[in-house]
Amino acid sequence: MEEKKQKSINDILPLDLIQRILLRIPVKHLGRIKCVSKLWHSLISDPHFAESHLHLSLASTHACIHKKNSTEAYLVHLEEAFNDKNYKVREVSFPFKKPPPSEFRLMGSCRGFVLLHQEPHFFVVWNPLTGFSKRVSYSWLDIVHRTKGRYFKFSGNAMLYGFGYDATLDDYLVVIAWMDSNCQLLDCFSLKTNSWINLDAAVPKPLGLTEWRSRGLFLNGSIHWLPYYLEKHHSDGLLVFDLKERSFSKISLPEQLKMRDAATFLILGGFLALCSQDYVGCKTHIWVMKEYKVHSSWTLYVIPCLEFEPLCLSNDSDVVAVIYRSLKFAKYNIRKELLQRFRCPHFQLQTYNWTWCTVYTESLLPFPSNSKHKDRKKKKNAI
């Protein structure tokens, strides 16, 4: 009698249920799971699956990457660091074949991609999880014609900048606000088409650029900044630029927020948040906007620790931060209780600033390609 062939899980479970199960698996494990079967490989490789996993996954993977030198960085998976006693910080190489000839900076992250900038005119988009990288060379000549021939240098001229995603165009954008002879200029660079977009028509008059150079943060289709007036110790509120509408708006800050020093602006668990230090009470105040653009939803959390710089919310909704003075990672719950600490031996004082360190959420998202500007090689090749 012929023996019956054993059924695989693909024969037993409906396709829809398999997809739902895969969406619940942390992104770092999906690379190995793709090897289980051709069907699973196909499902996980689908760009629509990557998009759904980014938004629907119950276990997002938050990672902190900070620069060691011009070729290497340290990568800390913030959940694993607290949950695994044997966790070791990884060293990763930046996507350069050779050490870059000039200094570069970490400009932020968006949807799993980290943006690097290298003088004089290179952007590098990098997905540390998949290994994808793309160098985008931009020409300052495209914008210098509006500055009467003056040389444009990103690090010297850009006052506000941000990295975001326009879903309507499937394009990642770098927005730059800068000054030239007391004239306010606004430009946007498309990483998909490698071209500049003049946005001066969208600039509110006056924009109110300040001495405080600000890196914008992307949320809900917009880039957000916290401009700060150093001399007045004052901020007019969050400046918001909608990437789809190409328009500005403002979000008022909580009235109780005291701006004796520039507050830290961040995204916590998908919410806008502000962090300020109470040096008298030796506490850190964290204001979280629970409903987007609803002023009454600003909620205050107090952490009994100074120089507590939040990085993200854990999957259990605890606040993960770096304590600047001791350079330790720490986790507090909303009841102000210290849960855990983690010491990163490689974390140096000079590496903790916004040009050397950034937090991102890992994703499998592919980088959008333009039919007129297709890459010649597949993504994992180094630059």
Task: Give a nutshell description of this structure.
It comes from Arachis hypogaea. It contains eight helices and 25 strands.
Please give a structural write-up.
By secondary structure, the chain is mostly beta strands. Among the domains are: 43 residues; 98 residues. Helices cover 14% and strands 37% of the residues. It has a 5-stranded mixed beta sheet with strand order 11-10-9-8-12. A 4-stranded antiparallel beta sheet has the order 3-2-1-25. Strand 23 and strand 24 form a beta hairpin. The radius of gyration is 22 Å and the shape is globular. It starts with 8 loop residues before the first helix and ends in a 22-residue tail after the last strand.
Strand portion: 35-45%
**Radius of gyration of CA atoms, rounded to a whole number:** 22 Å
**Poorly predicted residue ranges:** 371-383
Count the beta strands: 25
Percentage of residues assigned to helices: 10-25%
Largest sheet: 5 strands, mixed
Shape: globular
Give the distance, in angstroms, between the N- and C-terminal Cα atoms. Answer: 60 Å
Spatial arrangement of strands, main beta sheet: 11-10-9-8-12
Mean pLDDT: 78
Number of helices: 8
Class by SSE composition: mainly beta
Pfam families: F-box (PF00646), FBA_1 (PF07734)
Domain F-box: 13-52
InterPro entries: F-box-assoc_dom_typ1, F-box-assoc_interact_dom, F-box-like_dom_sf, F-box_dom, Gal_Oxase/kelch_b-propeller, SCF_F-box_component
Protein name: F-box domain-containing protein
